[in-house]
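Aim 2 progress. For N-acetyltransferase domain-containing protein, the working sequence is reproduced below.
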Amino acid sequence: MSQNEQPSRHGFLRLVGGSVQESWSRLRRRCASAAEPPRSGAGGVEPPAGAGATSLWLMRTTVHEEPGALAELCTALARGRIDIVSLQTFPLGPRPADSSTAADTPSPSGGRLDADAGHLPEQSIDEFVLRAPREVEAAELHRLIEAAGGRHTWAERADEDSLVDIPTRVLQLATRTALDTAELPLVLRQLLGRCTIRSVPRVSPSGRRTDPEVLDVPPEGRWEGTVLRLRDPAGGVLVIERPQLPFAPSEFARARALVELDRQLGAGKRVPHSPDSVTLSGGPSVTVRRADTRDVDAALALHGRCSRETLSKRYHGPVADADSFLTHLLSPRFGRSLAVETAPGEFAALGHLLWDGEETEVALLVEDAWQHRGLGGELLRRLVEMALEDGAGSVYAVTQASNTAMVAAMRGLGLPLDYQIEEGTLVVTAQLSGAAPAVRALSCAPSVSD
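Predicted structure tokens for this construct:
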């Protein structure tokens, strides 16, 4: 058994990618036979822009694994006064081809590629973090790279997080997953960039069983270009979609290793309660802590103490169905939950931060006897802080149009709000861009249940 075929309990070690020696050999081979790019004043190549405003870009392009291919790309970028901040490569291997395809396929070194035993030469995806003059747009990057032999080029603006090297970033994400099972969908999104992650349970909150064909995913998962399907350690299937950019094989391997790490450590069993004592204005002290599916009984008891009006404002449907949603709402696979505990195992309020594709929902429930004491506002502030830490751009709350209390709680955040109303249902969205100082400055303010 080779080192790369170790038992699955060591799968997380694959997160940092393939062999460093192999990657280095590939880069040396691809650069080796290319002539040294001309310097400034010799051939018209200017150095990368030094002074002046710049922007970061994340760019991917597919190239042939030919000597000199990488140097062609680097030279093209230098001509555009674009600096390469970092580079990683995703080997794709050879691709099938017939003689007509090969005859039409250009080589970075000139001429045409010949089909050898029915395959074109190996290809790889090169991913660059670039620093370019502010005026450079995506269309110019496409033009430069395609002219230098790149194909299927994709580029979007990046931020400073892109400067963290891949092994460091992946190990940080693995640590977060190991400490808290609720982090898995979030770290997958950070690992794979702008994508949509859906957790498809075997049974929906309403009791409907999922189509067996949807759940039919092999143990090793399935890679379908722009879609990854992985068995969810908590049950069901994780579906990851990125229509704007196909996943590379190494990205699939890293995602699979993170999911395997979660399975090995016990999905659903690593939710730190992190209790925090809070003294309400003019009232007793209570404990705010994380909640999960182990707290279903306490949540059911909370429902039992709430009036029908309070439950109907929270669940926007038949009150009799409210209990059936709790296992789903408390599952760390679908979001995070906070509880206000007045005594061991007795909840006065519940708050949920729920992941809805690329969006994030907040929801609150406060027992009637504990309303107007600031519990809703305290939970909402903490949930929004969590959303900020997770990189969410906004959070939204769905409530009844007549529920002025929930609107007041959202307004109490002091953030820009958008309102949409349709057939008595109100959706209030809080924009989180630049909101961290305002949210963290909030104190416990009066609030009521939504």
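The longest strand covers residues 119-133. This observation will guide construct design in the next reporting period.
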